[in-house]
Amino acid sequence: MKGDLLSHADRxxxxxxxxxxxxxxxxxxSAIVRRLASNGHRRLIFRTRQELDLTRQNDVRRFMEExxxxxxxxCAARVGGILANSTYPAEFIYENLTIHSHIVHEAWRAxxxxxxxxxxxxxxxxxxxxxxxxEFLLSGPLEVTNRPYAIAKIAGxxxxxxxxxxxxTRFLGVMPTNMYGPGDNFDPETSHxxxxxxxxxHEAKVADRPSVALWGTGNARREFLYSDDLADxxxxxxxxxxxxxxxxxxxxxxxxxxxxxxxKDLTIRELANLVAEIVGFAGRIEWDTSKPDGTPRKLLDAxxxxxxxxxxxxxxxxxxxRAHRHFLET
Length: 330
Description:
Strand order of the largest sheet: 2-1-3-4-5-9
Number of strands: 12
Order of helices and strands: EHEHEHHEHEEHEEHHEEHEEHH
Structural class: alpha/beta
Oligomer: single chain
Helix content: 40-55%
Number of helices: 11
Distance between the termini: 39 Å
Radius of gyration: 19 Å
Largest sheet: 6 strands, parallel
């Protein structure tokens, strides 16, 4: 099936379907909400963290019984960069394990038709062959700096596989590459690399500093995808007709897993230079090689998705410029 849009007749989700987006205020969740709204979906279900504590199973069960969503997008998670993962490993594994297990289990009890589980490319081994294919999951040791978070995400994928196998659910895991865009976290202590670079370069420019210091050697390679492109891919997948969707769920030992990426990567050094150019910082970039690089390279093989006809629309340069404008507005 070609093209990034499905015809109205082919869509699995009718416009009056009850749709729950867990984590609707985050980078990914907010992008999915924007896309759902633009597609005319009227019965969107949200709860803030204050209204619903996803780490409390009884609260999640009561919520699912009361709202009876037909479709669930599981975007809620504790997320962060290398520093946050290294500082709070207990919170990263505990909160993500509990949130994901509660939602997956209660979605099954509530009879949810389809669930999309948002994972992370860090689930793949540290020394994974490149580009990383879905079948490489659990094939080698993980990157130590984010292992607790990765294990929690792997557990969520395994839950989707287990519930599909035992109960016949249609729960699909999608593994996005590094995300950025509107709603991103620009906090210097907890943000990922791209928003952190945008903030650091902007502040250095405003303060007229001669240089900025960045972690690592700059040689690690990363792939990036604009959040609205991810939302487009997720809705493309959830709207696939049953035969195409069910093929993605896998058979036997295969995990229900689809990579979502741009198919292009670059070094952190190249990324830093690009951000500096877009932001307008003309100073020096100094590299603190005593700090970790993280995984040497993370490039996803997204051929399962692209062969269905989907491809991203927003270039990295354009996306960074948009993200910078959003930072200035926050």
